[in-house]
Each structure stands twice: as C-alpha cells, then as structure tokens.
Amino acid sequence: MMQKALNLLKNKIKGDVYFDELHTQIYATDASVYSIKPLAVVCPKTIEDIQILIAFATQHKTSLIPRAAGTSLAGQCVGSGIVVDISKHFTKIVNFNKQDKTVTVQPGVVRDELNLFLKPHGLFFSPNTSTSNRCMLGGMVGNNSSGTTSIKYGVTRDKVLSLQTVLSDASLVSFEELTKEQFEQKASLQTLEGAIYREIQQNLHDKHTQSQ
After folding, report:
1. What local confidence, expressed as pLDDT, does residue 206 receive?
2. What are phi and psi of 60, to 5 degrees?
3. Strands 102-105, 93-97: parallel, antiparallel or unpaired by DSSP?
4. Please, what sign has the CA dihedral across residues 12, 16, 22, 23?
5. How many CA atoms lie within 13 Å of 52's alpha carbon, on the beta-carbon side?
6. Could you tell me which of 181, 187, 211 has the C-alpha nearest to residue 199?
7. Residue 75 carries which DSSP code?
8. Bridge partners of 162?
9. Do the strands 162-166 and 102-105 form a parallel or antiparallel pair, or are they unpaired?
10. CA nearest to 137, candidates 173, 168, 103
11. What pLDDT score does 132 carry?
12. Which of 5, 79, 85, 142 is deepest in the core (most CB within 10 A)?
C-alpha cells in the first residue's frame, strides 16, 4: 500500500523520491551514533514539492525529517518517516543587496560558500561553526548556530531578517519583524498562521501577568 503511494508521490513532484534499500540505509544515519531506517528519502526541487510532501505526510500519518548538514550530533536528522534532503536542489543564492548588506539564500547554501560569495564585497556571515565547510543555512537557522565569535558578532538568529516558511498545513508564509498593528492584523487571521500569532500573543499576556 505504502509502496504504491510512494510511487504516486514520485510522479507528482519535480524532485527525487527514493525508497530503495540503498538510499534508506544511507540516510538511516547522520553524524551521530544513532541509526533509524526511514520510510523514504525525498530531495525536493521546488516549494510546491515541499507543500505536496506535507500533504502526503498528513494523509499517510507519517513524519517529515528536514535534513541539511551541520552540527546535529544527537540523532535529530534520523527517523522512521520521510527524510527531506534540501542539500541537492535548494542551494541558490537568490539575491544580494550590497547597499543594505542583505542576502537571500535557499536553505541548502553552505556557510563557507556563502562567505566566499560575500568576501569580495567586504562582508561575511558571522556565525562560524566548526563544520562551516559543510553546514547549511537551513540547519544553522534550525539550530540557531553560534561559534567562537558569537559573543562579538551574535548567533544565527541575530542575522535573520525574514524567513519564508511552509507550515504544517502546507501554507506558505513569511515571518519577519512586525509593528504592533501588523502583529494584531496577523493574529486576527483565521488560518494556521493566525493561530501561531494568537499563541504568541497569549504567551506574552501570560508572561506579563505572572511578572506583576
């Protein structure tokens, strides 16, 4: 039954879908000592692929395990669900604004490769993990990676201006700094995005109440 469903998934997305013995065994491990054989491995090529994957996982009651590369040594990137490897196709530096000193990247961009791109402009992405020649920006955001210079330059979250994100209902939303009015507008949305902001709003209210 699941084999048939995975074959249908393979025909739906533009990326790669693997559920053969070789690939599932390869992705059963990461840099940790743990080993769990996944149901399948998918290398999505587009945002639409990721949205289709989320809908598939929901329908078939399985999990998605996003995987880049980096410093996770406690088995975070292994599991019995579907491993989603963004290191193959999501590797583009999308936009660079030298004047604003901002760069837009896909999550599979390697930290050192980004800095090679930025070096001629006198800029660099400061969080310097010990795995900087292979860790990717998506993983660094997920881990809030730091490094030896974080006291001076800050950690990953200090360098993020906005995130384009696919939520668990497959909706595409952006997270960024908001004014109070913008926050309240978001919280009024009758969507999963709105529910997230209402949860934040409630947590802030509870924290304020407790501090009184």
Report:
1. 79
2. -100, 10
3. antiparallel
4. negative
5. 20
6. 187
7. S
8. 176
9. unpaired
10. 103
11. 87
12. 85
Position 149 scores a pLDDT of: 84
Enumerate residue ranges in the chain where pLDDT < 50.
none
pLDDT of residue 74: 79
Cα separation, 168 vs 205, whole angstroms: 25
Compute the CA torsion angle 61, 62, 63, 66 (nearest 10 deg).
-120
Instruction: Determine the Cα–Cα distance for residues 205 and 201; give it in Å rounded to an integer.
Output: 6
For residues 24 and 12, give the distance between their C-alpha atoms in angstroms, rounded to a whole number: 20
What 154-160 contacts at long range (C-beta under 8 Å, 24+ apart), as own/partner pairs, is 154/126, 154/127, 155/127, 156/127, 159/125, 159/126, 159/127
Which helix H or strand E contains 51, and what residues bound it? helix 47-59
Predicted confidence at residue 72, as pLDDT, reads 65
CA 24 to chain CA mean position, Å = 21
| Angle subtended at Cα 175 by Cα 116 and Cα 88, rounded to the nearest 5 degrees | 45
Nearest-angstrom CA–CA distance, 109 and 169? 26
| Cβ pair 34, 109 in contact under 8 A | no
Contact of 150 with 138, CB cutoff 8 Å: no
Query: What pLDDT is attached to residue 200?
Result: 94
